[in-house]
Structures are given as C-alpha cells and as structure tokens.
Amino acid sequence: MSMPGGRTTQVLVIMAPDSAGITPERQTMNSVNQPQQINRRVDRTMAIFLRAEPKTLGAIQILIGLIHMGFASVSIILIEAQTSYVSVITYSGYPFWGGLMFLISGSLSVAAELHHSTCLVKGSLGTNLVSAIFASCGTILLTVELIINGIFFSYMDQEPLFKAGKGIAATLLLVTLLELAIAVSVSHFGCQATCCRPKDDVVLMPYTVNTNSMVPSTPLTPPPSYDNMAYTKKEELGIEGLRRNEY
Length: 247
What we know:
Main location: membrane
Membrane topology: Multi-pass membrane protein
Radius of gyration: 38 Å
Helix content: 55-70%
Family: Belongs to the MS4A family.
GO cellular component, one term: plasma membrane
Subcellular location: Membrane
Low-confidence stretches: 16-20, 22-41
Oligomer: single chain
Distance between the termini: 89 Å
C-alpha cells in the first residue's frame, strides 16, 4: 500500500490459531458489543528499538548507577581514614560522573519504551554511547587500581579497610563490565533503528472475537415443484364419464 511522499505502509494481520468465531474489527456487524476500532500505527524505529528490551536494560542501568554512587561515598571514607589503599577511581571521580551518566542513559531507555518517542530513542542512543565510553574508562581505572593494590601493597591485605577497598573495586569492575555490555547492546539497536531504518510503517490490525455472531447454516434447498398434469387429466376423465352416464 503506497502513501504520499513515496512512503509505503505494510499491513500485518494478527490472527488466532482457531479462526472460528473470529472476525476482523472492521467487518464486525454487531455495533453494540464491538470494541472501539484499534488501528495503531507502529513506526519501524520503535519496532527495531524494542527488540533490545530497553525498559529492562534501562532499569538495570539505573541500579548500576546507584551502586556507583553508593560505593563512591565508601571510597571517600577510605581516603579520609588515611589507609595505605590507593583508590584510583576516587581520585579520578569515576564513580560520580560514571554513575550519573548510567542513571541518565537508563532513564532515557525506559522513557523511550514507555512513550514510543523517536526523540527519546535518539537521546537514549547518544547517552548509551557515552556510557559505553565511560564504562570502558572505568574498566581500565578499576583494573589499574586492583593491580596497584594487589602487587605493591600485598602486605597490607590483613587490614580490614584495605580488604574493603579491594572488595569495592572488584564489585565495581563487575558491574562496570555489565554496564558496558548493556550500553553497547542498546546503542546497537538504537543505531539500527535511527540510522538504518527503511521509510515505511507497520500497521497492526488485530482480530477480535464476536461472541454474538453465529455461523450461518447451509440454506435449505427449495422443495421440488410438483407436476399437476396427471391430476388434471384424471379430473377431466372423471367429468367425461359422468356426462356419458347421464346420457
């Protein structure tokens, strides 16, 4: 089906496995029980972007951002305690700017799925690209921190605060790798949706069940026409016989 401006429209008809008693909404004859007509036009951009499950992944990104913010406060306590632990991520500020960016990208991903907005999809794509870069930097910083404190200060492993610092760094490294995978995945589908999308739409035409509709039975064949010629001849013969008897 072609539309003005060279834009094409694809029609998808969703049918149930058993089509008995099921009619298209546009063809339902009963106007009392017929639900409102649903013709939702879904843009190809959202159809591609929703494959990434942005709502679920966005919620995980928000949780990762909150974890970064919380561990950043604990890292500051380690520095103020004057321990020998070298907190590279605290000096660089990665948990703060990284966690903030993860919160923003996750919120935009959730909003894009809820509101089906192309602008939000593009915003989610941009912030997730930045989040992927930040997560890569965080992975490098956390790896360096674990190497420094594991090699040069291994004799301090018995201190509780030192062990806590290494545990925080290891936990942040795991969630940062998870954030990197999520950001790359969402960015991939967002790029496919916004940069490589064809100029066509998808129209969903759902089928509804018409409970009052009855399957028309097979029409009865009309009875055969009877020939009355035989009865007419018998009556004529009977009348002639009566006349002869009278004579």
